[in-house]
Every structure is written in structure tokens, then in C-alpha cells.
Amino acid sequence: MQEKLLGRKLTACIRTFGCQMNARDSEKLLGILEEIGYVETESENADFVLYNTCTVRENANLKVYGRLGYLKKCKEANPQMLIALCGCMMQEAGVVEKIKKSYRFVDIIFGTHNIFKLAELLYRHLTEGGMTADIWEDTSQIVEELPVERKYPFKSGVNIMFGCNNFCSYCIVPYVRGRERSRKPEDIIAEVQKLAADGVSEIMLLGQNVNSYGKTLEEPVTFAQLLCRIEQEVPDIRRIRFMTSHPKDLSDELIAVMKDSKKICRQLHLPLQSGSSRILRLMNRRYDKESYLKLVDKIRTAMPDIALSTDIIVGFPGETEADFQDTLDVIRKVRFDSAFTFIYSKRTGTPAAAMEDQVPKSVVKDRFDRLLQEVQAISTEICAAGAGRVEEVLVEEVNTQEEGYVTGRLSGNAIVHFPGGPELIGTFVKVRLTEAKGFYYLGEIAF
Ligand code: 5AD
Ligand code: SF4
Fold first, then answer.
1. What is the pTM for the complete model shown?
2. Which ligand lies nearest the alpha carbon of 209?
3. DSSP-assigned beta bridge partners for residue 398
4. Nearest atom, ligand 2, residue 285 CA
5. End-to-end alpha carbon distance in the chain
6. What is the number of the ligand 1 atom nearest to the C-alpha of 350?
7. Ligand index nearest the alpha carbon of residue 212
8. Cα(108)–Cα(342) distance, integer angstroms
């Protein structure tokens, strides 16, 4: 109807904040919008703008509130525009009330458990008017077969489980993503087969803690067994990645399967969070410094060429300089290929938010700077050691910085830019890494 009045297709823009889970949800949300007639646009000056939000750190929330101010102006210039919010931040206590009170121009709000209802909520809004809000507290449901509009034709995320039961004391995820639920292996394999038939050659299996996959299924399956089945049953998939792996449940079975696999990438994301056993206990991580180091040793003995990445939080309540030195010690011992570093952010409702001894901002900032320096120095050295090697690369995109160059990804997840044209996108090529640039490489096709 509106389409006829405007004489053009309606446009939709989805902005994704946060992690790979959200990115995958956004692909499903776009799939639904395209099914009902929208065309995607990059511009937020669209007929339908959807923010898929994150709330893992307070900054993520502040970013959304900031951008809503900008959207309000767009809507004043174009009153037809519809604004929708979804994702983790909407599941957080008090957020929807705040939006209802201070951001009246938002049209539709939903959460993490009911993304499949987007078309219905849109219809309800258009017929009933007002602000349409539908947030589910939790769900035991897994909705299969949603339409999906993938960002890349040759690689895709695949959810294998939803939610988290770990309740790390700083983390809001278990409260906004609900209890852990695993998809059935048959459903996952059917999805991967469909993706492969559609030209996908690399998949990323997604879950908050993939190592506990399958434990709650009627017929329990381990994550390692799932990996074997995917590897054997879907020949056209050439690369398998996964994240995130909680160190407390990484099994010997998984290490053995990775070691023997031709397809599982030589990459493991193994969040450390802190190197201090005392802080790890307060974080409710259920491993300590020694067991983490032992685990890394075991992994490296089985796969000496594996690239390890991690997440680290500085400034957790009660963290002393000695605790921080333990973190630096682990970093120096493990020598991560890359590390994502975060300043502790107090999330209301989590146990850590109520802990005494919150570390002063200036102390945290100083530790953060020292941590970053250490992490970057090590990454640069590791990257330099890789120069000269020839590696198989999946070409992902045309390089926007350097004309005539494309960008590809190694098995270990590092990026390389090398001369080549758009016809290479989605293909595997052998590339010589000619120059290390700190955290990426320059290269050339190896003949
Ligand atoms: N403050 C800072 N970082 C956090 N993370 C999760 N919760 C918080 C928080 N409250 C980090 C962890 C996790 C990553 C996804 O985000 O390091 O592994
Ligand atoms: Fe958060 Fe811990 Fe669950 Fe990861 S494992 S999502 S850090 S509670």
C-alpha cells in the first residue's frame, strides 16, 4: 500500500551492535523484512530502521541512546519512518520503561527470544498504532527455518545453542539471553547442508559456550561429536570455526577431534578474563591460573600451529596490582595471537555490581594501557614470525583502501591484503605472506 503511494520499494536498514550472535540474528531479521517486501539499504534514512542492540558493557547502551537522538531528527524530517529496537539491551530491567518514557518516537520494541515475530509485530503496529512492545522473559523454544539474508555468500554463522547457564559474576548475558538451549544435531546439519548447497564454504558455529553443547538434549551429544558429524556429512564445507569456548569445559575429546581434522580452523578463542586465581574465583569462572596454563599447554602440544585469542577484563572489583600482574604473567606465558581487552563495566543485577571495592577509574585506565601495550607487542612479534609463509586464504572482499587489492583470511583468522580482483571473492588461494604489519599481512598469490 505504502509502496504504491511512494512509487518505490520500501527500504530497511538494520544496525547491529555487539557480538556474532547478534550479527546472525540480524541476518534472520533482514530475511524476514525482505520476505515482506523491504529492500535493504545502508542508510539510516530508511523507511524502517532497526537497531539490534547489545548490553554486555554500559558503553553499548550509551551508544544506542546517543544514536536514538540522531534517529529522532531523521523521523522529524520523514514522519513515515518506522523505528524498531531489539536485542539484548531490550531484555534488561528498566530499559523498555525508559524508552517508553523518554523516546516516545520508537515504534516497535522486542527482545532476544521473539525475533521470529518481527512481521507480526510490524503488522500489529501498523493496524493498532502506538508503541508496540513485546518482550519475553525467557523461552524454551527454538524456532527453526527462519528466512535468512546472509551478509557474505561464501561464509555464514550457524547457531548451535542459545543462552548461557554460567553466570560469570560480571556478566549480564545469562539474564538477557536466557537459559542454555542446544539445537538438535539433525537441525544443525540440515542447515549446514543447505548453506553448502548455496555456495557457503566456511561456517562459524555460534554459542555462548560451545563446549557445553548438547548436554541438555534428550539424546545428549558432545560438541566434539557434532564437529565430527558436520565434517563427515557435509563435504562441501571446507572450513569450520566456532566460538566461544569456555576453558572450564574444553574436553580432551575436542582437542583430539581438532587435531585430526582437515577442516576445523587452527584457531581457538579461549577467554581468560583474568590471570589471578583469586579474581577468577570471584568471577565464578571455575578454573584457575594453573589449570588455564595447563590447558593451553595441552592444546599447543597437540596443535603447535594453533592461533589462540582471548578476552581479558581489567578492573574487576577488588583487583589489586598483584592480581593484575598475574594477568600479565599469563599473557607473557601464553603469548596470545590476539586479545580483546575490556575495562570492567558494572552491570546492574549481576553479583559483581554489588561487590565492594570497585577499582578507581584512574587505576583501571593505567592497567588497561599497560595491558594493551603488552598484548600488542606480543601480537606484533607473532605476526612478524609468520612472514614468509605460504598459507591458504579464503578471499572475502575487495580492499577498499588499496585499489587492485583483495582481502582474505587465514585458517588462524589473521587477515592478508594482496593484489587481486573481485573474481577471487569466495575462492581459496595460496598466498605468500610477504610483509607483517603488526596485526595483518601484505601478501601475493603464490604460484
Ligand atoms: N565488563 C567488561 N567486559 C565484559 N565482558 C562481559 N561482561 C563484561 C563486563 N561487565 C567481556 C568478557 C566476555 C566478552 C564477550 O565481553 O570478556 O568474554
Ligand atoms: Fe557471560 Fe560467562 Fe556466559 Fe560468557 S560464559 S556469556 S562471560 S556468563
1. 0.94
2. 2
3. 406
4. 2
5. 56
6. 10
7. 2
8. 31
